[in-house]
Amino acid sequence: MIFLTKRSTICVILWFYLLIQYYFCIFVVEFAKILLVKRQIIVMTMIRKAEKRDIQAIVELLHQVDMVHHVIRPDLFKPNTTKYNELELEALLEDEWRPVFIYDDGKVLGHAFCQITEVRDDKLLQDIKTLYIDDICVDEQARGKHVGTALYEFVRDYAKSIGCNNITLNVWEGNDPALSFYKNMGMKVQKTTMEILL
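Now predict its structure.
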């Protein structure tokens, strides 16, 4: 009889232990969900479409992009210039097929230039809607703070929301940090551009 009582007590203790573990796991999962939602809300409020007031900050980032490319390929890229000037950027910000997103933390810490293209009724190609990332840049002072990841994930979610089939971009040979970043984001090689210098 005493043996059965001890056994019953052990079973009850074990049952309560498992019950506590179960509810603790539920708490941890729910807490993680709350943190994830909060992170997404914070990122959503920090990333927005670029406006005219952001142009000067975007130009500064474009200078950084140019210098990365100039260092890799000085035979192709001029130093101390940008792909777009202020007037061109102003016009670009009005183009719904070429959205520009910025990461704004009180200061513009990064941008993503995008282009949306659509193929319909082509005799060779399947119908497809693509978001091409023309450029993602993170301010050199903000690198390592996951700004690039937040921008990329925002653009990916935006592409999904507008019905894109894929996202594409180009990376210059020698830009190893960018190549590594995009691979970490799950991107794979679609095609390779070859050249020979004469």
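The longest helix spans residues 2-46.
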